[in-house]
Amino acid sequence: MRFNKKSVTAITAAVGISVLSSVAVAADTIKVGTFLAVTGGASFLGDPELKTLQMYIESINASGGIDGKKVELIHYDTAGKAKEAVKFAKRLIKKDRVDVIVGGSTSGSTMSVIPLAEKNKIPFISLAGSVKIINPVNKWVFKTPHTDRMAAAKVFEDMKRRGISKIALISGNGGFGKSGRGQSLALAPEYGISVVSDESYGAKDTDMTTQLTKIRNTDAEAILNFGFGSGPAIVTKNVRQLGIELPLYQSHGVASKKYIELAGDAAEGVRLPAAALLVASSLNDNDPQKQVLLDYKNRFEAKHGAVSTFGGHAYDGLLIALEAIDRANSTNKAKVRDEIEKTTNFIGTGGVFNMSASDHLGLGLDAFKMLEIKNGNWTIVK
Fold first, then answer.
1. Could you tell me the residue range of the domain that residue 216 belongs to?
2. How far apart are the first and last CA of the chain?
3. Which of 80, 160, 203, 222 is surrounded by the most beta carbons within 10 Å?
4. CATH number of the domain to which 273 belongs
5. What is the pLDDT along the chain (382 residues), one digit of tens a residue?
6. Whether residue 209 sits in one domain with residue 183
7. Region label for 266, one of left (φ > 0), alpha (ψ between -120 and 50) or beta (otherwise)
């Protein structure tokens, strides 16, 4: 069976993955390197990412590997620290001599490693959100999650439909939050939206009532929070505690059940853009993603519990990389890089990917769903 875009659904639906037949690689193994935030404040990103990579590579190897070649996963835990990401990326490239890197849970860790990937000419598929990862395009760098710019645009589309024209922006002061803030400020005028308040919070802050009290005293008609980790849940709780009844929007940085668990009843009514993975069973049967999403969701949840979009990004990155190796008939880094860039109609958990020399993500705004939390669960906004 060839490992290509037409067979991905059938392959991943199986208990094991069939032996793949067209890849001729010189090495005994195909080495996939990764650095992820498996522990620390961003562990809700890195933990499902690592579990996903391990689960699928284990299945591939149990079925004979790729043309008899085993796929070896070499992983390091950054605990969400950019300096650790640089150290481990150097080790992956120089000591472990990996063929491709699929990793980088956070935007900060990814941005810190980009110069290394470019200098050493190694294909690098990031699992982080910032648009700065791929804009401007770096020759050797790709990504699978939707960008913060796309998230802001999706939110503003929904606000415009609701007649909202004045908003308060609050964001985390980390790489993701800062980038999302910047994209939101830049895009708002295009949607006829004015930002009347602009607040921020730190990763270790446990109360945002001061910032939110300032927001309450403005004429804002809605609140948009860009951040990840515990911060957005604290913001959500504080909004309700202060009796603020404005519509509350979050970014795709909270697209996991963990956010709902942390925010509790306060999350009711919150809207956010997210991948269709969270509402897979609600998609139309003719949706090209539905079967892929259900296959991934069922496999992950059977082994690890509740699925998140973050593990899905790792699935997309791994399979895009392995398909590129298949098409290249080689682990030659330049050839693999070229084939990643040629990724066409790849049906993943994040959407249908179509990359090019000018687009190292390959997803449109339609890859996002606008969701609302109702009764502790995700629902699609009609």
1. 148-280+368-380
2. 40
3. 80
4. 3.40.50.2300
5. 234 333 333 344 333 333 333 333 345 899 999 999 999 988 999 999 999 999 999 998 998 888 778 999 999 999 999 999 999 999 999 999 999 999 999 999 999 999 999 999 999 999 999 999 999 999 999 999 999 999 999 999 999 999 999 999 999 998 889 999 999 999 999 999 999 999 999 988 999 999 999 999 999 999 999 998 899 999 999 999 999 999 999 999 998 888 999 999 999 999 999 999 999 999 999 999 999 999 999 999 999 999 999 999 999 999 999 999 989 989 999 999 999 999 999 999 999 999 999 999 999 999 999 999 999 999 999 8
6. yes
7. alpha
